[in-house]
Amino acid sequence: MTIKEAQEKLIKEFNEYMDWEDKYAAIIKMGKEMPPFPEEYRIEKNKIHGCQSQVWMNARLDGDKVIIEAESDAMIVKGLIAMLIKVYSNQSPKEILNNPPDFVKQIGIDSHLSPTRKNGLGAMLKQIQMYALAFSTILK
Amino acid sequence: MKNEFDIFPKEETINRRKFDVYELRKDFPILSRLVNGKPLVYLDNAATTQKPSSVIENIKHYYTFENANIHRGLHFLSELATESYESARLKVKEFINAMSASEIIFVRGATEGINLIANTMCRANILKEGDEIIISHMEHHANIVPWQLLCERKDIKLKVIPITDDGELDLDEFKKLISEKTKLVSVVHISNSLGTINPVKEIVKIAHSYNIPVLLDGAQAAPHVKIDVQKLDCDFYVFSGHKMFGPTGIGILYGKTNLMNELPPYQGGGDMIRTVTFEKTTFDDLPHKFEAGTPNISGGIGLGTAIDYINQYDRLELTKHEDKLLEYATEKLLEIEGLKIIGKAKNKASVVSFVIDGIHPYDIGTLMDTYGIAIRTGHHCTQPIMQRYNLPATARASFAFYNTFDEVDKLAEGLLKVKKMFQ
Questions:
Q1: How far is CA A105 from each of CA A14, A100, B363, rounded to the nearest angstrom?
Q2: Which residues of B touch A75 (CB under 8 A)?
Q3: CATH class of residue range A3-139
Q4: What is the Rg, in whole angstroms, of the alpha carbon atoms belonging to chain A?
Q5: Rounded to an integer, what distance in angstroms lies between the CA atom of residue B144 and that of residue B148?
Q6: Are B314 and B19 in contact (CB under 8 A)?
Q7: Catalytic: which of B122, B151, B234, B381?
Q8: Is B363 within 8 Å of chain A by CB?
Q9: Of A138, B153, B315, B349, which sees the most CB atoms within 10 A?
Q10: Domain locations along chain A
Q11: Does residue B229 contact residue B79 with C-beta atoms inside 8 Å?
């Protein structure tokens, strides 16, 4: 699945939910279903400092694809992380850099990525793009 | 029997407005708005309070009819603005029962008040290398960081009064911390994250027996309890306008005249000088010495109006209502399985910090917002308290006199719904 397709899939899924309670229930479900975060990555270097919730993220190159793994102690943040991973993990650095996260706004979760939320998500998104940029130079 | 020398009516003879929470709520326009399609339940009053129409209107009135720079103009508007601003100072003086209006310094907020004292005490060399300052474990960052900045500049040591598991100050430990090097005690009157009302009068008494001045951070106290700086006998007292139904960007530093006279100006500029030459400048008297530049005139006037608003009521009646809200909320929240209240001091203001097993405060706050309920989640700018209780964050509901029992019910119902979503 391309990033574009992954985003469209999420938008379609979330359009079916009538209200925020349903949306959050789905986000929480995604958080719960996320594969466990490898313990060796739970280190200070991988910590994205947020005000309220803690986020850890690791990105590595597997062939020409970026593999992103992340974790948060807050379930809604974890669910939002799961969405970012669905969209951006296992994609090429070039694809990542060429596809901004349009789904965030369309689903209406953009407020969670605003700096005022201070949950580390906005910083995580930036970090994903930074990694993609770094990996793209390695692959050249 | 009426005494013929009673020029001012005594407290009990003043005609007060009867307290009716539903009538009073009509004075706060924001309380009738919807949030996420639901009636707003505003329970984040420890962060900031809502403003009554009178405050909003008076700020508008000032800009519509009175706007001019104060203290220097001879023209009509300048005198009018000066009068409004200075009458606000008098209202603050009465509000905290200061000895004189010159002890009332307008600042941006409690934070600036503390920074002013920290900086000027340092520059006056009242705080020297090797000196010690005592704060407590339940301070807001605003009463920690300004002192730490000093500690970096001079070799000053910060000593911390520990708190008990219930969230009360350990006064025995406090006494042990005092030494001949202690130059200041700076503690919070009411904790913003635990709700604890500290025995500040006793703390002042203890410190004064060693001739140590005391600064009290009253940011949370001003909206909840009657403040009498003469009875407290504290040397400095700070609070913020926006936490007591006034505008943001205005606050008060109270300081005893003799101490404030010893301190140098905080900032230099207009309105604080007597004569300026390139060789030497002499400074104005209190309070103007500490008020450089054009102040927040509308903010000061708005704060005065907020005080007028509070004064319509018998303060005790307002406090009683808040106490009942606290009692009811505590009871309702403790019915929720897995919910733990952080801060169980015997003497407590209407602030309830809590955690729920297995649910991060961020999740609680986010979901409550979808129900139109505004609570605070996070460390509440008191990270050392979170470390003390080994928590990443808490959720916090804080009540003002305009909150209702019905809103407490909605809080409890909302939390039960949140719990259900995580099952």
A1: 12, 11, 20
A2: 359-360, 363, 422
A3: alpha beta
A4: 14
A5: 6
A6: yes
A7: B381
A8: yes
A9: B349
A10: 3-139
A11: no
Boundaries of every domain in chain B: 76-311, 315-418
- CATH fold for domain B76-311: Aspartate Aminotransferase; domain 2 (3.40.640)
Chain A residues in contact with B393 (beta carbon < 8 A): 52-53
Predicted TM-score (pTM) of this structure = 0.93
Instruction: Tell me how far apart the alpha carbons of residues B341 and B336 are, in angstroms, rounded to a whole number.
Output: 11
CA atoms within 13 A on the CB side of B33: 8
Q: Which of A1, A51, A134, A139 is catalytic?
A: A51
SS3 annotation, B61-78: HHHHHHCCCCCCCCCHHH
Q: Do A75 and B359 touch (CB under 8 A)?
A: yes
Residues near A36 by Cβ (< 8 Å), separated by ≥ 6? none
Nearest chain A alpha carbon to B422:
A28
Q: Flag whether residue B356 sits within 8 Å of chain A, measured between CB atoms.
A: no
Q: Which residues of B198-229 are buried (b: 16+ CB within 10 A; e: fewer)?
A: bebeebbebbeeeebbbbbbbbbbbbbbebeb
Asked whether the beta carbons of B302 and B55 are under 8 A apart, the reply is: yes
Of residues B359, B362, B370, nearest to A52 (C-beta): B362
Residue B83 neighbours by CB distance under 10 Å: 12
Place of tokens 């708190």: B163
The answer to whether A21 contacts B367, with C-beta atoms less than 8 Å apart, is yes
Out of 3.90.1150.10, 1.10.3720.10, 2.40.50.140, 3.40.50.2300, which CATH number does the structure's domain B315-418 have? 3.90.1150.10
Q: Which pLDDT tens digits describe chain B residue by residue (423 residues)?
A: 444 444 444 555 578 999 999 999 999 999 999 998 999 999 999 999 999 999 999 999 999 999 999 988 889 999 999 999 999 999 999 999 999 999 999 999 999 999 999 999 999 999 999 999 999 999 999 999 999 998 888 899 999 999 999 999 999 999 999 999 999 999 999 999 999 999 999 999 999 999 999 999 999 999 999 999 999 999 999 999 999 999 999 999 999 999 999 999 999 888 888 888 888 888 889 999 999 999 999 999 999 999 999 999 999 999 999 999 999 999 999 999 999 999 999 999 999 999 999 999 999 999 999 999 999 998 888 899 999 999 989 999 999 999 999 999 999 999 999 999 998
Q: Regarding beta strands B214-217 and B236-240, do their DSSP bridges make them parallel or antiparallel, or are they unpaired?
A: parallel
Q: Which of B36, B361, B379 lies closest to A20 in CB terms? A: B36
Q: What are the structure tokens assigned to A94, written together? A: 């070039």
Which candidate, B399, B423, B422, B421, places its Cα nearest to that of B410? B399
Asked if A2 reaches chain B (Cβ–Cβ under 8 Å), the answer is no
- Contacts of residue A51 in chain B, CB cutoff 8 Å? 378-379
- Is B381 designated active site? yes
Q: What span, in angstroms and rounded, lies between the C-alpha atoms of B247 and B50? A: 9
